[in-house]
Amino acid sequence: MKQKIVKTVGALTNLGAEVIGGLNLLETDLHVVHIPKLKVEVDLLALLTGNDAFQGSRLLLGERRETVRTLAKQGWELIKVTRDVLKPRFGGQFSSVWEILGFAGSLEAPTSPEEVKPMVRAIQVYMAANPTLEVPSLGITAANALSVYNDLNAAMIALNLQESTHGVLRDTRDGAMDALAGTVRGLVDELGLKLGPLDPRWKAFGLNMPGADETPDTVEGLKAMLIGPTAAALKWAAAPRAEYYRVWIRVVGVDAEYRAVGSPADIDFTIENLPTNATIDIIVTAVNNGGEGARSEAVRIVTH
Prior knowledge:
Immunoglobulin-like; 2 domains; five-stranded antiparallel β-sheet; three-stranded antiparallel β-sheet; 4 helices
């Protein structure tokens, strides 16, 4: 079975921990020298540290984006109320006179931070030059416009810096992933010189046995039918690569987990001696020397 070096952070960190566990047990016995446990530990720590920093940065990035959205909305509201107050003076339709406040082509108030910011600045400049037109009760003042502008500008700068930092941290995290994956591949190569393709010690490292078959597909088409008060007949479709199957049952309200009741080689099976007056869930898995496939969908029967 081909070794699959997983690519997600969670799966790769789990594999790194399993590899370290295997090296704890077998590094000395197998004389592993090219990829020692310390190398894996260093690479795993780098990935964990890098991912923690990346995830923290992502949270901060979200907070800063929300701050910019909130402040841009304040600017949008200031633009709208200023526009409405000045309509009797400038006119209810767009004209070039409105351009002094940053309007272009229409009197629609923009919503994007990049468009809101210069218009709020234009309002500040205009109100500073025309203080008799200020309406403090509505926030239409040069001082308020300057405050909104400064806050939005500072938030946008902080967001840009955080986006840059986030990109660096993402690249660092991804580099640590690549490094750990490369280390595990190097260990696989070294172990390949020391372990046979079906040596079970591969599994101590969380790795596949190279000589084992690929795990079987999930069993599909499971059907169950009562053939007596306490017996049920099962049938299902053959699963690719299956050498045999396992049949599992769980008595609802009695069993906390499924328990195996048979290992047939064929695609049918009869379960006998089931408890009476019980609701029973049944699943089937396919097995080969590479391992056990995923569980089938459960079917339910009710005995009498």
